[in-house]
Each structure stands twice: as C-alpha cells, then as structure tokens.
Amino acid sequence: MNLQEYRRRARTWLEANAQDTEAEGTPDAGGVAAAKAFMARMYDAGYSGISWPGEWGGQGLTQAEERAFAEEAAGFTLPTYVFSIGLGMCGPTLVDLGTPEQKARHLRPLLRGEEIWCQLFSEPGAGSDVAALQTRATPAEDGWTVTGQKVWTSVAQHASHGLLLTRTDVDAPKHKGLSMFIVDMRAPGVTVRPLRDMTGRAHFNEIFFDDVHIPAENLVGQVNDGWSCAVTTLLHERLSISSGVGMGGRRDNPVAFEALRHTADTADPVVRDQLVELHIRSRALALFNERLSQETKAGVFPGARGSAAKLLLAELTMFQADLATSLAGPGAVAYEEGGGRLAEAISLAPAMALGGGTNEIMRNIIGDRVLNLPPEPRVDKNVPFKDLKVNG
Hints:
This protein has eleven helices and eight strands. The protein is of the alpha+beta class. The chain folds into three domains: 113 residues, Orthogonal Bundle (Butyryl-Coa Dehydrogenase, subunit A, domain 1); 112 residues, Butyryl-CoA Dehydrogenase, subunit A, domain 2; 117 residues, Up-down Bundle (Butyryl-CoA Dehydrogenase, subunit A, domain 3), CATH 1.20.140.10. The longest helix is centred in the last third of the chain and has 29 residues. It is globular.
C-alpha cells in the first residue's frame, strides 16, 4: 500500500485503540498489565517493530512507515513507557550484535510486550565514566557469576531482562576488560530497590547482584569486547532518547508546544517570541533526528552526532520547563487542583541533562569526535584496571 493509505490505516487503528490509554512513568502492576495488553494489540496490528527485520519478528517495512506511524501516534498518549528501554536500546543492540538464538528467543517477545528490558551500565562510582565500572563477572560452570551494583536504572522494577555490562579482566585497561550479558532480572541474587526523585516518584532504581549465575549463551558479542557493545547501545540510547522512541505520545504533555500555546497570553510579544523559539527548536531537533535515522537505515553510522541530538533534546527540555514555569507562575509548583502533572514535568526536566550522559559529557564527545578538537589529557587508557585508583 502507498504511504498515504498506511498513514490513514494507522490513524484509524489509533483512534479505535489508543483513546482510553494513559501513559505512566512508573505504573503499578495493573498499569503494566494494561501496557502489555496494549503492546500485544499494537504488534498484532503490525505497528510494533515496523522497520525491524521481519525474520526476527519485525514488520520488515521502511523508515518511512516508521515515521508515518510515529507522526500519527504523536496525537495520542500511548502506555509504552515501560518498553522504551527495550525498544529503543536493548532490542536494537541485539539486532546488531545478538546471536541468532538470542534474536529468536527475545526480539519477538520484546516487540509484543511480553518482555520488559532495562539497561545496566551506570554504577555509584562509574556514572559518566562507564568504563570505570567494577561489577565483576567471573567464569563459572556453564557460564559466569556476577557480583556488584548498578544504579539509575529505569524500569528495572518491572523488567524481566536487562543488558548488563561487567568487568571480566582486571589485568586489561579499563575499556578492554569489559563484557556484556543478557541477565534474567528475576534470577536468584538480583535485588531491585527503587530510588525516589524530586518528582515524588521512583523513576530509577539501584540493583544489587550477589553471586548471580548467567548462562554462557547469554554473552553478547565477544568476551572482553564489551566496550564496543556498550558503544552500540549508547548510540541507540542517545538516538532513541532524542527522538522519543517508545516514550508515548505528546497529546497531553503539559510542557509541549501545543499545551503551552493554549495556556499562554499570546498577546504578549515576549511570550510569542518564546513560543516561536520553542517551535523552532523542536522542529530543528525533529529534522536532525530524521536525518540521523535515514542515514542509519542507509548504512551510514551516525557516530558521535547521536550525542549532539541528545544534547539538543536536554537543552530543549530545560527551555520548555523554564518557559512553562514562567507562564504558570505559582501553579508550576502546585500539586493540587490539576497542577500535579505540570509540576512533575517541570521537576523531571533536569533528569534529561543527566540520564544517558550528562550535557558536559555530550559536549566533550562532540568536541573530540565531531569537531576534532584536542582531547583532554588521559592517564588511564593503557593502565591495567587493577592498578587504577577508583572510587576515591
């Protein structure tokens, strides 16, 4: 069918299936069950994994259909938040690096909402410097034994699986002694503890691994080549964060352009100027993301430009929050009389400048790898990890 007909059918399906759904950042068990039921319907209708390979459960269509559905879905609020990490980061990593057995086992259930995934990279002493992580995976019978801690992990309280980055060789430099695994989040020894942030909700978690067994077939990529696997995941992470993959529609986002436009005093020329600035920034980011997406599908690796997209989104989010605060006045901090969603959105905005890499780290990456500026001095790249001083 042509793209116009595809778009019409997608809009019809959304009108019939998405009107009564609600997006929830930290849903309860009932909310997760409803989200899974919605994902199953969306997959069965052909709207999950639109451009993923057909042989592994995707629809095998093009990026054009993917964009058309995303544009139609932007007018609705979809309960897909809990699947955002799996659909935007973990699944694409398995498409790129997973074994045929891993793809056959996980990709279709992930697309259909039967599995929820999380990404286990950051640690208390290794946030922005992911390669300094200390969670250890040691060889064991039929696999590996993992001990350590991760933190700032989204949707871990609901996840069935995760992509886990560990250290497997302390005698190698820190970037060369890492390995990536698929981990069962319900395996013995895995403990998930929610972390409550200033929105009042637990968007993140800390996870403890106490002698957790991981089967040998759960290795992603090669032993001690985990850093290259992590770079692949981080690329997908920054692209998906910047483009909003799996994060739900924007129909009732209280700080989105349309919401602010309808609540603002547009007779004020300063307010009109700010709204125009917001619209320009939003459109520029959308077009930049579209270009990166098209290049990726054409086999052109976006590389560090994905960090530019993530940085642009973080700055756009803070601009939105500042504008919403100035327009709402005291209502920006009110959690009663319908003001809770606005206050929560404003409070959550700074997290975009931290999660997935801080703005400062993004600027360093752009300077080093896009603009080819001289890198900062490094003294740890060729030193065995066991000889480094970490955690103070």
